[in-house]
Structure formats: C-alpha cells, structure tokens
Design brief:
84 residues, mainly alpha, two-stranded antiparallel ribbon, 3 helices, 2 strands, 79% helix, Sodium symporter small subunit domain-containing protein
C-alpha cells in the first residue's frame, strides 16, 4: 500500500471514530444515561430524554450518514480515488 493510501485509510478511520463516537453519545448517552436529566425539558409535548430514545437519535443517525458521505466524497477527491 502506498504512503498516500495509508494516509487516506488513516483519515477514513478517524472520520469513522468521530462519527461513531457521536452516534454512541446520542444513542446511549442522551437516550439512556442522561435521559432523566433531559426529561426536565420537553419537545413536542414529550420529555426530551424519551424523544431522544424514540425519535431524536434517528434524526442524528441520518444526519451522520449524510456527513459521512460528504466527508468521504471530499476525501476521495483529495486523494484522487474518486469515481470519475
């Protein structure tokens, strides 16, 4: 593997680590660990902790997919491994 491809792979793994950390924080942290504290607030008439556990985390997951696609397209173009 060339040095450029190692950099590409390393950057890809760093993107994955960051996005999966956000995913974990939202799904486990906001939906379970901090649910009681978040339930002091409400969104749409539902306690915020419940909302994150049922719906909010899904919105974050879809947003994370779009962010990953954007970042990878940019990275592919930077390392000239994109589809032309």
């Amino acid at each position: 593997m060339s040095k450029d491809l190692k950099k590409y792979w390393k950057k890809n793994l760093s993107y994955l680590a960051i996005l999966l950390s956000i995913w974990f924080l939202v799904s486990y942290g906001l939906g379970i660990l901090f649910a009681d504290a978040l339930n002091a607030y409400s969104i749409g008439g539902f306690p915020l902790g419940f909302w994150f556990a049922q719906q909010g985390s899904i919105y974050f997951f879809v947003a994370l997919i779009f962010v990953y696609v954007y970042l990878m397209n940019r990275l592919d173009h930077k390392f000239d491994v994109d589809e032309k």
